[in-house]
Amino acid sequence: MKIATYNINGIKARLPRLKEWLEETRPSVACLQEIKSQDEGFPASEFEELGYHAIWHGQKSFNGVAILTDGKAGFEPPKEIQRGLGINGPKEGEGEQSRYLEADITGQDGATTRIVCIYLPNGNPLPGPKFDYKLAWMEKLRARMGEIWAEEVPAAVLGDYNVIPQDDDTYSVKAMASDALMQPESRAAYSSLLADGWTDAVRTLNPRGGVWTYWDYQAGAWQRDHGFRIDHILLTPELADRLQSVGVDRDHRGREKASDHAPTWASLRG
C-alpha cells in the first residue's frame, strides 16, 4: 500500500498536474491539502474518471483537505470518521478552518487503516495570534492522535505540518531562523508527537536529513534547491513495522504551473 501527501496549492489551478501525478504514480491513498475550494466546487468527477474515490472538507479560497483512494486497486471509498478538531481560527468571530479530515480506508483484502489528512497552520507572523493559533492547533492534534492511539488501530497522519523538525531539514538554518516553521515551540510540539510513539516515516529512512518537500516560488528557490521538509507522514508502530520505502516526487515540483510542494509518499507492506 502506497500512501501519499500532496499540498496542491489550489486544486482548480493545479488539476492537470494533480491528475498527471495520480495517473503516473497511482498512490493507494492520497491526502491533499490547500485545495482552496468550497465543498460544492470540488472536482470529484475528475478523480472518478481516473478510478479514485474522494471525500473532502472545503473552504472558500483558503485551506481545505481531501482524501482519495484508488478504486482500481480495490480500495473502498473513504469512510469519514471526523472532520475538524473543534478549534476556531485566529480572527475574532472566525469559525473553524478546514484543516483536518480523518477516515477509515479499507483495501481489497478487507484490512482497514485509519488515515488522517492535516494542513497545520503556518503561524506567521510571530509573535501574535497566528502563532498562538498554530500552537493551540498542535495541542488539539496531539490530543486527537492520542485518542486514535488508544483505539489501537493502524493509523497514519499525513500532511503539511508546517514544521521544520531539525536543522538538517532545511537548506539554511539562518534563512529560516525567524520563521514560525522553525521556532523552538513548533519543534517541541512536533517532537512531542514522536515522543508519544509515532514514527516519522521519511526521517526513519533518511536519518541524515537533506530531504526537501517544499520550494518557495520566490527568489529562484526551486532552481537553487533552496527547500525544506514540512510535509510529513507519521505512523503508528504497526504501520512503522511495515514501512518499506519513502520518497518525494521532486520532478512534479519542476513542471509547468506546479505546486510549491512536491508529493511525499511511503510504501507499506501488505
Description:
By secondary structure, the chain is α+β, with helices and mostly antiparallel strands. It has one domain (2-268): Endonuclease/exonuclease/phosphatase (Deoxyribonuclease I, Chain A, 4-Layer Sandwich), CATH 3.60.10. It contains seven helices and 14 strands. α3 runs parallel beside α5.
First-to-last CA distance: 6 Å
* Count of individual beta strands: 14
Spans of 5+ residues with little confidence (pLDDT < 50)?
none
CATH superfamily: Endonuclease/exonuclease/phosphatase
Decide which structural class fits the backbone: alpha+beta
Global shape: globular
Q: The biggest beta sheet, please?
A: 6 strands, mixed
What is the overall number of helices? 7
CATH class: Alpha Beta
Percent strand equals: 25-35%
Q: How many domains is the backbone divided into?
A: 1
Return the string of H and E elements: EHEHEEEEEHEHHEHEEEHEE
CATH architecture: 4-Layer Sandwich
Strand sequence of the main sheet, in spatial order? Answer: 3-4-2-1-14-13
User: Roughly what percent helix?
Assistant: 10-25%
Rg, rounded, reads 17 Å
The CATH topology assignment is Deoxyribonuclease I, Chain A
Chain-averaged pLDDT:
97
Give the assembly state of these chains: single chain
InterPro entries: AP_endonuc_1, Endo/exonuclease/phosphatase, ExoIII-like
Site (Transition state stabilizer): 162
Site (Interaction with DNA substrate): 261
Active site: 119, 160 (proton donor/acceptor), 261 (proton acceptor)
